[in-house]
């Protein structure tokens, strides 16, 4: 019986009923695969162009500060008063409190950022306001010499100068106010 099964199987194999399936090789993606993958020609071209165009490397806020550039504030300083701006200029040494009681432009020693035209106009306004104050004090106390009034005002005003602000000493040297 065993021989019969082998003979039957050999007869069927030679008759062509059993054959290997055809194998079709495709070197391209099917239409469905192409649709799923999408077309990235535009993206690839933009990427290639961006690679050819040099752009500056971004700096961190700390790196900008080391270079003396103030980073743009994340929120607007709407509540900043002129006095706050003067304090900031004094701390950065762009402006100093002179021993004569007026603000002095010391922008060569400015530590961070630069003094803008608005800052320079503010310093002029503050100096004019101080001179008007001294004139009014002189009219209110005509018996006291103007130099004495100025010196007394400056002594009282110097106590309120912001810590670290740039001030001129009696001998003409500049330094930070110690608190």
Question: Can you tell me about this structure?
Answer:
This protein has seven helices and four strands. It is rod-shaped, with a radius of gyration of 42 Å. It has helices at residues 2-15, 31-37, 41-52, 61-66, 82-91, 117-140, 146-159, and strands at 95-97, 103-105, 166-168, 174-176. It is mainly α. Helix 6 packs across helix 7.
Map the helices and strands.
Layout: H1 2-15, H2 31-37, H3 41-52, H4 61-66, H5 82-91, E1 95-97, E2 103-105, H6 117-140, H7 146-159, E3 166-168, E4 174-176
Antiparallel strand pairs: 1-2, 3-4
Using DSSP, what is the number of strands? 4
State mean pLDDT (0 to 100 scale): 79
Structural class: mainly alpha
- From the alpha-carbon coordinates, what is the Rg to the nearest angstrom? 42 Å
The coarse silhouette is rod-shaped
Give unreliable regions as ranges.
none
Element order, helices and strands? Answer: HHHHHEEHHEE
Q: What about the largest sheet?
A: 2 strands, antiparallel
- Provide the spatial order of strands within the biggest beta sheet: 1-2
Distance between the termini: 115 Å
- Please state roughly what percent of the residues sit in beta strands, choosing from under 5%, 5-15%, 15-25%, 25-35%, 35-45% or over 45%: 5-15%
Number of helices, where a helix is a run of at least 4 consecutive DSSP H or I residues = 7
């Amino acid at each position: 019986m065993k021989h019969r099964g082998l003979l039957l199987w050999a007869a069927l194999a030679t008759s062509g009923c059993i054959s290997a399936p055809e194998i079709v090789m495709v070197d391209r993606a099917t239409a469905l695969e192409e649709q799923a993958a999408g077309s990235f020609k535009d993206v690839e071209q933009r990427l290639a162009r961006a690679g050819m165009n040099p752009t500056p490397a971004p700096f961190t806020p700390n790196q900008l500060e080391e270079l003396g550039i103030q980073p743009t504030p994340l929120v607007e300083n709407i509540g900043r008063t002129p006095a706050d701006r003067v304090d900031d200029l004094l701390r950065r040494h762009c402006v100093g409190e002179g021993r004569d009681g007026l603000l002095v432009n010391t922008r060569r020693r400015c530590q961070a950022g630069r003094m803008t035209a608005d800052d320079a106009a503010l310093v002029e306004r503050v100096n004019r306001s101080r001179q008007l104050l001294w004139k009014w004090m002189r009219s209110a106390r005509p018996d006291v010499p103007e130099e004495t009034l100025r010196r007394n005002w400056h002594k009282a005003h110097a106590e309120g100068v912001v810590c670290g602000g740039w001030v001129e000493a009696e001998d003409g040297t500049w330094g930070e106010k110690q608190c």
